[in-house]
Design a protein that fits this description.
The complex is a heterodimer.
Chain A (H helix, E strand, L loop, with lengths): L1 E5 L5 H9 L7 E8 L9 E6 L4 H16 L3 E7 L1 E3 L4 E9 L2 H17 L3 E7 L2 E5 L3 H8 L4
Parallel strand pairs in A: 1-4
Antiparallel strand pairs in A: 2-6, 3-5, 3-7, 4-6, 7-8
Helix pairs in contact in A: 2-3, 3-4
Chain B lengths: L1 E5 L2 H6 L3 E4 L4 H11 L1 H7 L5 E4 L2 E3 L10 E5 L6
Parallel strand pairs in B: 1-5
Antiparallel strand pairs in B: 1-2, 3-4, 3-5
Classes of the chains: A alpha+beta, B alpha+beta.
Chain lengths: ~150, ~80
């Protein structure tokens, strides 16, 4: 049950191993790793800005709601901030539950939220200059799947 | 003096990220910022720009004290 925002790169395998360790009543751990794309050379660096104390609190609120909705035994969100090179992991989400469906769905839901509504401001640096990125229609439609 | 933080493209428009500005309310702060920098004023009034006082989103006006932290947040892009 935690959120970590960090400017340093992380290693998703190590995070998953630590998250899954020592769980004797967990039948399922689902995880997702998001990686920065180079967009065929159009993006040389991705830059993510967060509002410390606000961004992590909002993510924690959504994580707690997901834990309640899917009866999770645990969840973890690790998100990079600052400058990120193509090929580096940007986000890691893991969820734990007694059965697989809940872990899969909660992980999917958390990623849709993180990609569409989480309080980050994203800038792409490329050979043609810098540009601020807003959520795509696809991101918004993905997030709407969870509205009931 | 309220602490004012700008995020995303707002900081690019203003050319600064944080500042200490005298204001007793959020409306007064917006007026001061707009009077000083009309481009920033226009950006702050743009669609989807929200304000947070002490890390809580505020709609409308709010009183500010010497220790208030005001953040102007452009539409959130997700990570």
């Amino acid at each position: 049950m935690s959120v970590q925002l960090q400017s340093e790169p992380f290693e998703p395998g190590g995070l998953l191993t630590a998250f899954a360790a020592g769980r004797t009543e967990t039948g399922a751990v689902a995880s997702f790793t998001g990686i920065a794309r180079a967009e065929a050379g159009a993006t040389t660096t991705l830059e993510l800005e967060a509002y410390p104390g606000f961004t992590d609190a909002e993510i924690a609120r959504i994580g707690a709601a997901a834990a309640e909705r899917w009866g999770l035994q645990g969840w973890l969100v690790v998100h990079r901030v600052g400058k990120i090179a193509p090929g580096e992991p940007v986000v890691f989400v893991a969820t734990a539950s007694r059965h697989r469906r809940e872990a899969f769905e909660a992980c999917d839901h958390l990623m849709d939220y993180l990609k569409s509504r989480a309080p980050f401001w994203k800038k792409e640096h490329g050979p043609d200059g810098d540009r601020w990125i807003e959520p795509t229609d696809r991101d918004r439609t993905d997030a709407q799947r969870w509205e009931t | 003096m309220a602490k004012v933080l700008l995020f995303g493209r707002l900081a690019d428009v203003a050319g600064w990220r944080d500042a200490e500005i005298e204001a007793t309310s959020l409306h007064a702060l917006r007026d001061t910022l707009t009077a000083t920098d009309s481009a920033l004023g226009e950006a702050l009034a743009g669609p989807g720009v929200q304000a947070a006082v002490d890390k809580v989103i505020v709609r409308g006006d709010a009183p500010l004290t010497a220790t208030s932290e005001v953040a102007f947040l452009p539409p959130m892009s997700g990570g």
